[in-house]
Amino acid sequence: MKKIYNDSVDLITDESFVSYHNGNAKRAEIHFWTIWIAENPDKLHLVTEARTMLNAINVHISEAEFQVEKDKLLAKLESKAPAKAHRLGGKWRWIAAASILLIAIFSFHQIFLKGTTPPTLTLQPTSTEEWLHVSAQNGRIMKVNLSDGSQITLMGGSTLHYPKHFGKDTMCVLLNGDAHFNISKNAGRTFAVETDNAIVTVLGTQFLVEQADSKNTRVSLFSGKIRLTNRNNKRQMLLSPGQQGYVTNTTIHLDKFAPTQINNFPEGILHFQNASFAEVARKMKQYYGINLSLRKPNARWRYTGHFEKLPVEAALAAICFSKKLSSKKIATDTYVLY
Predict the structure, then answer these.
(1) Is the per-residue pLDDT at 114 higher than 70?
(2) Looking at the DSSP assignment, which residues form a beta bridge with residue 24?
(3) Residues 135-148: pLDDT tens digits?
(4) Alpha helices, DSSP H only, in the chain?
């Protein structure tokens, strides 16, 4: 009988999930959770909550110590629970969960006062044996070839996290930044891309994922079909070729695009459509590796332009010509427009 996970408390009290989160799970457990997360996009907010809670716990006490203290506390809470606790249901479980976190916080102070430095926090799997992490430096493009023939092209400043061993039914990767995906068709196996606020699920296709920040994701589909999910409100939309999906923290909507109106950076193409200066500067840093500033900041500043394999000087000249500005190089990789 499969276990049902209705809230984040179910997850943080499951030894298999804790091991998966900590990066020391067995291969079968990794396989199970990779598939479960990909197949249950409506419960990803529970996973995020559980990981946040476990991060607060695991940097303070070991899993074994936490398990012992957790069992003691839950037993005590159950023995002293009021008669109406069972009627409170989830609320009582959250009281228990909060109490468990107090153990972690107390343990942190005990360790910290002894001079122990806590490790860096992360919401992503951290086991170097089971997960691979690839980062592209600003100004450089990196290609990642997966075992099934799929290819992922990372824009500068982007990072990809993916398991060393994919399951036969599901392939799931985590993206921070921008990437172009060319996914091989494999009947029966689902490919999923997770960003901070969106999930892209495909069966074999080409698409582009761009993140302006953690609250805004844009997905452009070139071929095939994909399902786009908003991680916050669980709304979903199906995309067809030529459509773009926009995901914010509160909305998800579709639009159309032409092949000439896309950032096809693997082919050396950058496209700006009524872009703010912040967006232009971000893309220029990712693609060319330069820092761009505006001497007189202007919130109403907008730029439309199309670059095809242009050197940085030519790209800057095009921007300046359109906006009636000049550029000045003030450091090796820094330019100011005035």
Answers:
(1) no
(2) none
(3) 999 999 999 998 88
(4) 8-12, 15-22, 27-39, 44-58, 63-80, 85-88, 90-113, 277-288, 312-323
* 331: three-class secondary structure by DSSP: strand
Helix (H, G, I), strand (E, B) or coil at 40: coil
The CA-to-CA distance between both ends of the chain, in Å, stands at: 67
* Amino acid present at 313: E
pLDDT at 97 over 60: no
DSSP track, 57-123 = HHTTS-HHHHHHHHHHHHHHHHHH--TTHHHHTHHHHHHHHHHHHHHHHHHHHHHHHTTPPPPPP-S
CB atoms near residue 205 (< 10 Å): 20
CA-based R_g, the chain, Å: 23
- Give the whole-angstrom CA distance, residue 289 versus residue 178: 15
CB atoms within 10 A of CB 234: 14
Question: What CA–CA distance (Å, rounded) separates 268 from 151?
Answer: 17
Measured on CA atoms in the order 255, 260, 264, 269, is the torsion positive or negative? Answer: negative
- Contact residues for 272 (Cβ-Cβ < 8 A; gap 6+): 279, 280, 283, 303, 304, 305, 306
> Do the Cβ atoms of 249 and 233 come closer than 8 Å?
no
> Residue 307: what are its φ and ψ, rounded to 5°?
-110, 135
The whole-angstrom separation of Cα 172 and Cα 33 is: 11
Q: What is the pLDDT of residues 138-178, one digit of tens each?
A: 999 999 998 888 899 999 999 999 888 887 778 889 999 99
